[in-house]
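Regression test attached.
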Amino acid sequence: MAKRAEKGTLKKVLRYIRRYWFFVGLSVVLAAVSVAGTLYIPILTGGAVDLILGPGQVDFPAIGKILGRIGFMIALAALAQWLMSVINNRVTYRVVRDIRNEAFRHLQELPLGYLDGHPTGEIVSRVIADVDQFADGLLMGFTQLFTGVITILGTLGFMLSVNGAITLVVLLVTPVSLVVAAFIAKSTYSMFRLQSQVRGEQTAFVEEMVGNQKVVQAFGREAQAQARFGEMNERLRQCSLRAIFFSSITNPSTRFVNSLVYTGVGVAGALAVIGGGLTVGQLSCFLSYANQYTKPFNEISGVVTELQNALACAARVFELMEEEPQLPDGPDAVSLGEARGRVRVEDVSFSYKPGQRLIEGFSLDVKPGQRIALVGPTGCGKTTVINLLMRFYDVNGGSIQIDGHDLRQLTRKSLRRNFGMVLQDTWLKRGTVRENIAYGRPDATLEEVVEAAKAAHAHSFIRRLPQGYDTVIGEEAGGLSQGQKQLLCIARVMLSLPPMLILDEATSSIDTRTEHRIQRAFAKMMRGRTSFIVAHRLSTIRDADVILVMRDGHIIEQGSHRELLEKGGFYAELYESQFAAT
Amino acid sequence: MKKLLIYLKEYRKECVLGPLFKLLEASFELLVPLVMAAVIDTGIQNADRGYVVRMCLVLVALGVVGLGCSLTAQFFAAKASVGFAAKLRAALFGRIQSLSYADLDREGTSTMITRMTSDINQVQNGMNLTLRLLLRSPFVVFGAMAMAFTIDWKAALIFVAVIPLLSLVVFGVMLWTMPRYKQVQAGLDQVLSAARENLTGVRVVRAFGREEAEIEGFEAQNNALTHLQVFVGKVSALMNPVTYIIVNLGAVALIWAGALRVDAGLITQGAVVALLNYMSQILVELVKLANLIINITKALACANRVAAVLDLTPSLASPAQGRAGGGGAVEFDHVSLTYPGAGAPSLTDITFTARPGDVIGVIGGTGSGKTSLVNLIPRFYEATEGRVLAGGADVRDWPLDKLRRQVGVAPQKAVLFQGTIRENLLWGNENADSAALWKALETAQAKDFVEQKPKGLEEPVEQGGRNFSGGQRQRLTIARALVRRPEILILDDSASALDLATDARLRQALRSLDYRPTVFIVSQRASSIRHADQIIVLEDGAAVGIGTHEALLESCQVYREIYESQFEKGGGEHGQKG
């Protein structure tokens, strides 16, 4: 099963490599050239040594000729080797670039349901870390697999051409080193797994404690934390010691086996020389082969594990890239122009997980310019409604229409362009303040940007930033308070001011006085625009044309403030309790 | 770095024995070409088969002894480096535990975590490699040269030329590429953060229909990374071919010189073969050395980062001879606070007194100093001017652990820890029984949802409490603070994710506890604090108003604005009736 999956992944990888087939072919040829040169040189050297027999028995002109040939081979092999590395580099990084670009492109088309359901860190790690690992493996594979295989074959050929019997000695002893290496790797595997498990446990603990160090201190839990850490630390020390020691046996052991090969060749060779079947030069050539013959084997076994690992990483990326994208816009999808803002919801049913009932029989008729307030306790699923309106998710049944068009018959882009959205989760892009405000309309002039910032009451604080509108902000740049970020998000919508709005009245993070001004900005924005507001403020709720009361994901009541109060249901209770506190 | 070595003290014996055995092994390795030369010169010349076999047994013996030495060396190195890393980790963890809030703000907790984990792992690897190989490679290089000199000093002069040349190339390429690889890493990080940013903002990206622009931006960054990688790769690919050229040219020179010397009858044929062998040994070791140095440099950088944390002296300490107070009274006496490195004070001249059992509301805009104010009570930070008194004693006189046991805090960021609900609540008080826990949960308005969990108190809490909603987490942190039945309870904007009704019920429950802690409620919501005994209105770190709701409505402009922005005139009237 696993083998087949590996094969499938390999096929996909090859598809990406195929674009660079010419370079790959060239790389193989160059590898052959460089290996041939590398292997030929010991023979030449051996030949030269044979010409140095003793005092008065040195053939200088012949040695000179051989040395000239060696020089040529050196240059050839070195050049081929360098070109090969350069080409391998280039192919690898281009393949990786292609995969990464394509993966990112695919991310833009994945349904929100997938992205919401998978932790961001995990997806990012597939696109970045896994691809990076894959690159390492691929590069190593390219460089060492070709040369390794060619070296082994070449060495065998050369050795056979010189002396069959001694070749046999090499052939017989070499596998021992492989067996030893494999045996050690196998028996240390479980030790390494244990080590990484304990290490993972400790890392999680450190992240938790140090990440929340302030809480640890507030509750005076330093000693307990230290004690638990110490216990894990000791366990880690013990299993690390085992893993590291036993794995570090590999090198000395294979070195030992190599020295056995060397000795074997020495004995057999020296005896052969005495017997007259071999020259001293050929013996020295054999010795140098014996020295390097085991190397490609070790390398190849390393490459194979590395390649397996690389394929596993590639498989994770491909899995992401093969994830079903969202339904593309239909061929006859209409582009919605400037909407009037009539929204009809007809008998809509929706749930995130099949079988789990959430919204059912939801109907609503919103006339252009009306305000809809979404009300309910925290976590009651108010964002679900937003998800459906923006078509981040598709309804399971029924339909939502805007100006008489079913959402599914509109292009997503044109639909979303008609909504201005300010969420509680303030996302800003890494870039300047100006770029962020102009996010929805990158061609806006500076005047327009400033205008929007003024309307959102963001102008005054932006002006005080070190570089004003050109100050770089973003994830890491920080420096902005939550409230200021919120203001920028509002400015962003202010700039394009679409015909319909989705607003989350985020009360918890904004400066109360600024909030007052934002309230006014919101009011200005909402005038004449169909607005859906996740409402916290009494005044917003009371002024709404329709209130949707939500609880546990369901819409449980809907109507105007008065109607709902008269009904005496959940809303009425919520409303009363709000001011009943003493 | 030197300071870290004290953690190696216990392993002094291993640190000497490890490299020593490694050198022994290397010495045996250096003897091999000499034995081979003897085989050629004596065994083959005299056609002495017995001698050949004997010499080869010597080679095997050398191999066995070498193996024994190197295994011993590996063991000592592993033991010392792993033990060193463990000690270092424990010391670092302990140091982090002792840092004050101000220290943590300055250093940042996320870098602390990297230092605790990957940095120390690197240090461990580096230490292991250092003990095993740092002496070995130069020893073999110079040993090979020395052996060459014992064979024939004139021919050995070629080594004197080749070694520096090789070192120049190996270390030159290394020095050039190392900073470039850092750039590559930085480029990779950028691509990574571009991807992360895109994913976290996916709703906004799609709402504004900017997918194509995002793709363009990503591809530009990714392509730039690829260019850099290819460029660096080109240069670092030079290392192997160039060293190859140098070593083989050295061999060519050796053959020529050897030919001359043999011709003159000064050395033997076997000696030439031995010289050639030493030459190839040198190359192998130099490349190893270069890799080793890269690793050790990395490890040193990590070690310095670790040492930097160990060097921190906690900026806040418990007094040697403490004097604890008692009761829930809190008094601020002309208190000012300026954070280290900050230009402007975060609190200026705050004076107020809270009697035991009072409810104190703290309100003001973001950055007005609300959290700073309450953080002074358990002495998370040190007031730069004035005095903070808790339970009648200056907080600086209190033994720190006693003071903090007196105070229950529900911080702004609702953090829970992996474990069970019970384990989390026990943070407040290790000895609390189930009844006490349920009582705290009830007060914190968390009883309902905990009861609904299949396992109740034993319900598992995932890391960061992510299997609970924001509001649930907040209520659990409040319960955790209540479990210790504190004299002083601080709720630092910890009801922000609760809806107004739950918030109201929570405040009511706090009023009807069977003990009367002094409660500080920090909030942005006027409704949360309007019924407090005293409300402190902060603006830019100054108390612009202190008093009851009614008094402040009369006298404090800032408070009135806040209040009216949340309860527009009509709503406010309605509210007062209820």
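Expected vs. actual: identical. Residues 81 and 179 of chain A are 30 Å apart (CA to CA).
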